[in-house]
Design goal:
The structure is a single chain. The chain has one domain (2-255): Ribonuclease Z/Hydroxyacylglutathione hydrolase-like (Metallo-beta-lactamase, Chain A, 4-Layer Sandwich). The model has no long low-confidence stretch (mean pLDDT 97). Helix 5 (171-181) packs antiparallel against helix 6 (186-200) and helix 8 crosses helix 9. The chain is 35% helix and 25% strand. The strands form 3 sheets. It has a 6-stranded mixed sheet. Strands 7-8-9-10-13-14 form a 6-stranded mixed sheet. Strands 11-12 form a two-stranded antiparallel sheet. Helix 1 (35-44) links the parallel strand 3 (25-29) and strand 4. By secondary structure, it is of the alpha/beta class. It has helices at residues 35-44, 58-61, 64-68, 145-156, 171-181, 186-200, 210-216, 225-235, 242-255, and strands at 2-9, 13-20, 25-29, 47-52, 75-78, 88-90, 95-98, 103-109, 118-122, 125-129, 132-133, 136-137, 163-166, 208-209. It is built from 9 helices and 14 strands.
Length: 256
C-alpha cells in the first residue's frame, strides 16, 4: 500500500510524499521548498528516489536543486516548459515508472494554468498540480478558458474513486465561492460544512475524489442548468454554451 503524506510548505502549498509501508524509498511531488521535505526525510528515515513536477511556477519547483544536489535522483517534469533541474522531460501519453514504489504513472498534458502543465495518474491517484483544485481550478496564467475546460474534462473522465492531490489548501475558499454559482446544490452545502469543520480543527482537506468533484466543483459543472442560471444572474446576461459558463465562472472567481 502506498502512503501519501501532505507536507505543508510556504503559505498554503502542499508537497506530496509517497512511500510504501515498511519501506524507506519515497517520491515527492512539486517541492516548492526543500527544508520541509528534508526534515520529513530525516524524521521518517526515508530515501528520496524521484521528484515529479507538474509545472514551472516557483512554489512548485524551488526546492528541487537542494533536494537532488550531488545525488543521482531523476526529476520528471513537463517537456513543454523550461525548468532548471528537470532531467527527465515528459509529455502527454508518457509513462513514469517508479520501481521502488511499484507504481507507474501516466502523464497527461493539461494546459490552462500554464501552457505545459502536466498531471500524473496512477494507482488510483491523480497529482493535479494547479489544474484541478478541490472545489476549484487554477487561474489561467498562460492558457485559455477553452484549453482549461478541455483539461478539466479530461480529468473529470477519470474513475469516481480517483484520489485528487492538488497543490494548495484552497478548499474552503473554493467551496464558499462555489456556493454562489451553485446555491441549490445540497452535496456542495454539506461538503462546505464538513470542510469548515476540518479547517477549524487544523486538518488538511485533501485528497478529494473525482466523483466528489463532479458533484460539487462548479468548474466541472458548466453544463449544469442550475450553475448556468445562477451564473447568468450574477453576470447579467445569457451564457449559451458550456464554454461561456465556464469562462464567466472563472472570471467571477478571479474577481472574488
Amino acid at each position: 500500500m502506498i502512503n501519501v503524506l501532505a507536507i505543508p510548505a510556504l503559505s498554503d502549498n502542499y508537497i506530496w510524499l509517497l512511500h510504501r509501508e515498511q519501506q524507506r524509498d519515497c517520491v515527492v511531488v512539486d517541492p516548492g521548498e526543500a527544508g520541509p521535505v528534508l526534515d520529513c526525510l530525516r524524521e521518517r528515515n526515508l530515501h528520496l528516489r524521484a521528484v515529479l513536477l507538474t509545472h514551472h511556477h516557483g512554489d512548485h519547483v524551488a526546492g528541487v536543486d537542494a533536494l537532488v544536489s550531488n545525488r543521482d535522483i531523476p526529476v520528471y517534469g513537463p517537456a513543454r516548459e523550461r525548468i532548471g533541474g528537470c532531467s527527465h522531460p515528459v509529455d502527454d501519453g508518457d509513462r513514469v515508472a517508479i520501481p521502488e514504489l511499484e507504481v507507474n504513472f501516466q502523464v497527461l498534458h493539461v494546459p490552462g494554468h500554464t501552457a505545459g502543465h502536466i498531471a500524473y495518474v496512477g494507482a488510483g491517484m491523480l497529482f493535479a498540480g494547479d489544474t484541478l483544485f478541490a472545489g476549484g481550478c487554477g487561474r489561467l496564467f498562460e492558457g485559455t478558458p477553452e484549453q482549461m475546460l478541455r483539461s478539466l474534462d479530461q480529468l473529470a473522465d477519470l474513475p469516481d474513486n480517483t484520489a485528487v492531490y492538488c497543490g494548495h489548501e484552497y478548499t474552503e475558499a473554493n467551496l464558499r465561492f462555489a456556493n454562489r454559482v451553485d446555491p441549490h446544490n445540497r452535496a456542495l452545502a454539506e461538503r462546505l460544512r464538513q470542510v469548515i469543520q476540518q479547517r477549524q480543527n487544523g486538518q488538511c482537506t485533501l485528497p478529494s475524489r473525482i466523483g466528489l468533484e463532479r458533484q460539487t466543483n462548479p468548474f466541472l459543472r458548466s453544463d449544469n442548468p442550475q450553475v448556468r442560471q445562477a451564473t447568468e444572474a450574477l453576470v447579467g446576461h445569457s451564457l449559451p454554451s458550456r464554454l461561456d459558463v465556464f469562462t464567466a465562472v472563472r472570471a467571477l472567481k478571479d474577481a472574488a
